Fold each of these.
Amino acid sequence: MNDLSNYRKSYEKSELLETNIPEDPINLFNRWFHEVEDFGGSGEVNAMTVSTIGLDGFPKSRVVLLKKFSEEGFIFYTNYNSEKGKAIEANPNICLSFFWQEMERQVIIKGIAQKTSEIISDNYFDSRPDGSKLGAIVSHQSEVIPSRTFLEENLKKLETEFEGKAIPRPENWGGYIVTPLQVEFWQGRPNRLHDRIRYTSQSDFSWKIERLSS
């Protein structure tokens, strides 16, 4: 057995106090996101974990890239026929989480996912490099395949087929926007007395702000 009980560190880089937070969690997320980006320690500051409840009843988490966020919600893109796409279709209640180790911060977002408009999906797909576009077409995400060679050979066929041509977005590929219902901000602090501030959406479109025990 690998004993990890002595893996410890002291979190001392920042604090999260009620006297210095906005009334809207998106504003705080925006501030934290760009502070991490400016810090320069995270290779992909927009990397997030998406957790869903699968068709088998088990939760499953995987890392995807956040592509846009606003007051309306958080947008990412995927294959709608993938395991996560099927899970969201059956149960749109999902969780997003960000862990920015360099700033000793974590954000956990509970929300409801729904497909973005076709225009939003088309515009993002059109902005992607051709290789990424073809990859979205050739990959039947989450399905069992015989080998790596199978993917590579199919990609070569598509490269020949679409040489010099516009590459259309597959109907089964597009965006999801996650409307946040609850957003928790975690800031590491010394002696495990971490700061945890939770925003909960209210019926009047305001946010209830609460401090949680570490």
Amino acid sequence: MVEFGRLITAMVTPFNDEGSIHWEETSRLIDYLIDVQQTDTLVIAGTTGESPTLTDAEKVQLFEFVVKHAAGRAKIIAGTGSNSTHHSIQLTREAEKAGVDGVLLVVPYYNKPNQEGMYQHFSAIAKATSLPVMLYNVPGRTGACLSVETTLRLAAIDNIVATKECASIEQVAQISGAAPEGFKVYSGDDSSVLPALAVGGYGIVSVAGHIVGASMKEMIHAYVSGDVSKAASINHRLLPVFKGLFEAPHPVPNPVAVKYALALRGYSVGTVRLPLVPPTEQEKEFIRQLIGTIS
């Protein structure tokens, strides 16, 4: 069984001035996330990586490039989920050929299948690959919620090994308490990682890990080592960053804020692709002040 660790960073996709993938900066970003921010695993072409605007060809190139550059220093999870089962199977098979360590499969969006449809969707993809599968339940984006019962049903499939849960802490608790041994529940909300750990969660699939990953790793280690007071203190210090990257100074779509924050750290990851737009001057100033508090 692959161990993805407790800190997983959903990596942004660097773009150059022409809007194409910036490969040199992708290399720098991988090194920074592994060596400085201490991430255990990278998610490539997830929501934070702007997967809706990446072509399949770009995704496969990214999978191959990141696997080669990471060179075993971190595990690599490919975002291969979509609202088409057939398409997801095809992309998952390409990711497996590229040498990734696992895949992240989001709940089908827009067509809003019922629970049986979700079960059949995920089980079909899992059966089409030997890779470990992490489910991704994010009702706020997909318009559909994978239930606790369906998650547990899917957890009985050998290579479905984890879920990224964004519905509620209650669902984290219910799944963690009833899942088979070895099935791991990750929070998909940075501000909820400590509460998630407290109810049986295993770790975080993070956006803020780009900026405060090393501190998040310290917080998680403190909690699992029994130093709850230290973990709570670190969490209190990081909460403004967790919130600010999504509210700069009002709600902004991910990864608009974190890309600008990385630019402030000297990483030329470029802007976002339409239909996302760059931060306003007011939002930039907010992010500058936010990052200044942790520099």
Amino acid sequence: MPPLRGQAPWPQHEYVKGWGVFGLPFDSGHVLALRVFPENCFGPYRTLWHRDPNGSWSIHVDGPHLHTACPRYYGASCDHTGYARIGLTWTGPATLRVTMDSPSLDWTLTASATRLLGFLNGISGALPLATWRPRLLVRARERLARALGMGDLQLSGTMPSGHTGTLMPQRMYFVDDAHALLDGVDLGRPVQLTENPRIGDVPLPARGVLAIGQAAWKILDPAEYERTRIETARDLALPGEDGP
């Protein structure tokens, strides 16, 4: 996806669009997540999320601002947010190597899909975004995710920041094969948990999932949103830039 500053699909919302590892728990108690959002309201960024076995969350941002990346929505539940260089290299058709400079991370993962998941991806990718508005249809997707081993996933709700919104994965793939070294420590093997890991009150998948899609949140403070649009417009000129 090319970098793009765009507008949310729904009025009075802000959005992100891209892909990432929704969450990946390890048998050591660590959890990793990755977000790659070249398209959103403010400017492209990548983030690496880490939860240690004690439940402490960190979000590392490769982008111009912390307050326009994932910490905007989840930073209130983190013990640390900061900047890092995050590298992405596809070493095979479905194998990704993720690196980070500080803290040092070398993480390789392979995504896969069962026949059922491939079938569901085909249906989900063809459905219009309007099907994410009715609460009953969102809950139906959550029940389906539970049946696929993702646990009690919530695709809509309130973020630690107070923003309310909806996560809209259009295609999902399992991540059952991965290896990660964080500051030289081997995080172990991917595992399916009996309880979903949470950042604040927001549950992440109970098993490793790579997702492609978007998310939209209702604008919490219209004046802050417009001010941030103006500030970030000065940082870069991207295709589709329409000014503040």
Amino acid sequence: MLQETAAAAPAAAGGNNAAALQQMGFDHLIQGFDAVGWAVFLTLSIMSVMSWYWIIINFIKNMRLRARADRVVDTFWETPNAQDAIRFMEEQPKSEPFSKIALDAAQAAAHHSRQDGSRLAETLNRSEFVDRALRQAVTRESLNLEDGLTVLATVGSSAPFVGLLGTVWGIYHALIKIGSSGDASISAVAGPVGEALIMTAIGLFAAIPALLAYNAFVRFNRVTNNQFDTFAHDLHDFFATGSRVGEAAGKR
């Protein structure tokens, strides 16, 4: 009799464990959602979709920019005729930032030349006028690089807390069910609590890619902004004096 009881105990424990595992899955979690659970889950889903959208968009944009940047800048300076260089910049895609900066500088220099003797030319000299146009162009292109970074930063910082809210709410309901049933065994607790913890995992899955991508894009933008500044300084010297810094000394 004792042997039969001892043999039945492991079997009962195994059955309880199997039942607990059946209640510890994503499908069972979805079925048990209330209004708050659905709100948290949908919020995390939207966050994840938005973050991956901007990750892909910014990755493609940055790879294209990196592939074209050196060629565009080098071709501009290597073209002996200024008009041919400007024409080359006009042929670049609208999304290419270096060509847009160069064209803004060229347009500012040309506009100032046409206003020679006017009140504009008396108020701002050529160097100041070109410098103002370049500052505006660099600021505009720098802002364009930051598209989607606010979304990535928001998802990376808030998604874990949204998932934690879902976990706390799920554990709260799980404890209520356990208390009403009067069954406080580990098999009864593991399933509901494990389901609630899935919400924390979903929050982390949404936050980690967004945070890593945000840091990577910020670093890339810092490098690109330095390239913008260097190119803008060279453009200012070229359109204000007719030559880049170092060229005049090299010709002596």
